Amino acid sequence: MTLANKLSHFPPTFQWGVATAAYQVEGAATNDGRGPSIWDAFSHTPGKVLNGDTGDVACDHYHRYSYDIGLMKSLGVTHYRFSVSWPRIFPQGRKDLNVKGLAFYDRLVDTLLDHGITPILTLYHWDLPLALQQQGGWQNPDTAEAFGHYAQTLAAALGDRVKQWITHNEPWCTAYLGHLSGEHAPGLTSPSAAVNAAHYALLSHGKATMALRALRADLQIGITLNLSPVYPDNNSEESRKAASLQDVFNNRWFLDPVFLGRYPEELALILGAVPQHTPAEMEIIRQPLDFLGVNYYSAQVVSAPQRHQPAWPVPHVTPRDRTTAMGWPVIPRGLTDLLMRLNREYGPIPLVITENGAAYDDLIEEGMVHDNERIAYLSDHIEAVADALGQGADVKGYYLWSLMDNFEWAFGYAKRFGIIHVNYRTQERILKDSALWYRNLIREALS
Ligand code: IFM
């Protein structure tokens, strides 16, 4: 069966969306009172981002949002997932509210609704106000407090129109890439910093969830985790053990505290550190959620670590499949397996694919981008979602990453994930073939 034969698996209420994030698309880094974030500081530090790229201008979505929403409308997407830049709302992280920053999201939400597109809002997609980093950032429990207040401020302003709220995007990246590998802002390289940053980010998720619920009972609240299933390369005990450890690192580090209220014991073995935490904090972290956001890009096949190899770095990975321009193996089946596993081990919980997509080295030919590899990737992964629906998983939506090419963090503008091509010199947008393909798919699915 092909995807076309499985479209009936998607219910009529299915959310067919596209996703972006503030620092990756907005630009306007110093406009209308926005304060600096850790990503402004990081990207302006020589050597941290490829080619010295920064998010200063990005896709200029801050000024062109109305045009971009028109493009979304032309594609027929039903939902738009965006994130709010915390330092636009509180330039210093807390206290002084920047009314002009808030007004931008007010306009964005109204324009979306005017076009019949439902907004879904992420509170934190990595652009922590720099002022908070200077006080310890995610390693400081006060940041969790400030996040709860920020969440409540936004819900008071937008909660009448925005009903789906995501607290954090991919706290694994905040913790690991930001505090251990140092590839992301704030660029730290300490195991204890990573586990504690993860813990207080999770605590802030719990606090924000409680704050939003206290303010409005009609909000749907979730968290988005980047999850990546792990398969042993053979059935030996060693390989299975290596896969299970890698799974703790990739997935259970965040799934277990959010849904079970505890950290996996093996975390100390893998990371060489355990988060400082109290039972009361774990209860705050384990809030009942309305949905889990799943970001899926790839899976891993691992083999047994060599004897005497330290537990860190993580076991050797052996990709066997096609890869994207990021070097990530294309494993659509991993998405079906993941959704079924979440349902089985952490559910029942409604699931939303909050990101899925691929970077490829696109070529412009006579004003068009024939990105057939991306279409194949998308088609295979949406089919994987259909399979999970067919097997009983409660999947509410699919948000394609990304609406348009944008600032891909440490890779700057070198990696293109969009279904809309962006010329960063002129800001011209071109619908790639994948955009037209997605438009047709949505049309068929909803017909
Ligand atoms: O661009 C990122 C996004 O910000 C978070 N999830 C993964 C995407 C691709 O790397």
From TrEMBL:
Statement: the UniProt record of this protein carries the keyword Transport: no
Top-rank EC class of the record's enzyme: hydrolase
A single MF term (Gene Ontology): beta-glucosidase activity
Binding residue positions for substrate: 24, 125, 169, 297, 401, 408-409
Active site: 170, 355
Gene Ontology CC annotation, any one: cytosol
EC code(s) of this entry: 3.2.1.21
UniProt keywords, alphabetically: Carbohydrate metabolism, Cellulose degradation, Glycosidase, Hydrolase, Polysaccharide degradation
Reaction catalysed by this enzyme: Hydrolysis of terminal, non-reducing beta-D-glucosyl residues with release of beta-D-glucose
Entry's Gene Ontology BP terms: cellulose catabolic process
NCBIfam families attached to this UniProt entry: BGL
PANTHER family in the cross-refs: GLYCOSYL HYDROLASE, LP05116P
Protein family per UniProt: Belongs to the glycosyl hydrolase 1 family.
UniProt-recorded name of the protein: Beta-glucosidase
Species: Sulfobacillus benefaciens
